[in-house]
Amino acid sequence: MPIHEECGIFGIYDPQGNCARTVYYGLYALQHRGQESCGIAAINNRELSFHKDVGLVGEVFDPETLNRLNGTMAVGHVRYATTGGTQRENAQPLTLNYVKGTLAVAHNGNLVNTKQLRTTFEYRGAIFQTTTDSELIAYAIAQERLRCDSVEEAVCQAVKGLRGAYSLLVMSPQKLIAVRDPWGFRPLCMGRRGDAVIFASESCALNAVGAQFEREVEPGEIVVVEGGTVTSIRENCESATSHMCIFEYIYFARPDSVICGQSVHEARRRAGRLLAKAYPVEADVVIGVPDSGLDAAMGYAEEAGIPYGIGLIKNRYIGRTFITPGQQSREQAVRIKLGPLKSCVDGKRVIMIDDSIVRGTTSRQIVSLLREAGACEVHMRSSAPPFIAPCFFGTDIPDKENLIACRYSVEEIRELIGADSLGFLSLEDLHKIAPDATCGFCDGCFTGRYPISV
Ligand code: AMP
After folding, report:
1. Which residues bind [4Fe-4S] cluster (predicted)?
2. Range of 328's domain?
3. Using one digit for the tens of pLDDT, what is the confidence trace for 328-347?
4. Torsion angle of alpha carbons 358, 362, 367, 373, nearest 10°?
């Protein structure tokens, strides 16, 4: 079974030092992208040190560890893997020693040619310690480095053999290198704070550390930071096409991030407005399922002229990984995660918006929570279209047999979740939610059509 990686990465070069601490804050702002494990690797006077473990950023790091790491360059990673236990050894950044020195690699995304790469490398004598794509990438770079004059050239050659999603931060003793795959599947942006150069999966992490957004790393681009100098290698940009994951806007990213010029909040709000136009219904209140359904609920309420209410309270102390794989624990999890606000929904006709329906478990539970709290009608709207296919590029979408929309019609799903009506954002409307985006999209999980063969 593949390991689905939903991750966040953050890296900084800062001549002032204290880099591990900045990465720590940056990772805190990216915690929504992964809660299973996290880590930071830092370079101080060309020496690499690192710390990584299973757990949330606030659990894994303490002031002592951060002081020990310190340095003028650092990269960090938050990871969310959904298969295979706790897997401490799969925590990132991945660090390695080889004849040319040390490397640290932080990776967000999934490759689709992992098997071939692994076999090829193993026949050349490689021994892998983890089951992650990221180790293959690190190995590929280390191999190329033996032939190439510089680490950036090695990165440029190594990534030519990779197919799939990779937003990468690579750190050598002297250089910080940011890379995006030529399809631009996963976001990666660049910012500045004084003399410091920073890279982050999302712009919300730049804000968190007081940095100014500068630009996106472009699909296929390799940005190299050495000392205070920033250079760009665009050799792999020529073949680049832009296919950013559209689900980043719907679910994955934080609403205060701007991705490829498009505010995530505004995209969600627009999705809500489009839903209101497509599936109007008479009701008393519009509520969103926290957190990723809230912005769309606001948009729906605005368009429909129906009051927006806070109908569900989310327990803030539960990470997304709390949704454990077993069906029974998943059902229990919803009750612990969400509490209905009786005064908001009692005796009301409620429109409830969530970002998506995957297996249908959450929606069924929420509909029943709302009815228990007195809602007389519950109309559900999903701000994503039905999932009909898996994602091979880093979002955890289960196999087809677990996707409710693969097995049932909309009317059947409505009945299964117990709602009075149900509407999904259409594919056509999906492509209207991000008019400011300067990129193209991958919508493979909603269409089964992918930008590269899988
Ligand atoms: P389900 O109960 O399987 O229908 O899951 C629906 C819920 O899962 C929604 O509330 C979504 O916010 C959430 N969700 C959607 N995509 C993902 C994902 N890739 N990882 C974790 N949760 C997700």
Report:
1. 245, 391, 442, 445
2. 263-447
3. 666 677 888 899 999 999 99
4. -160
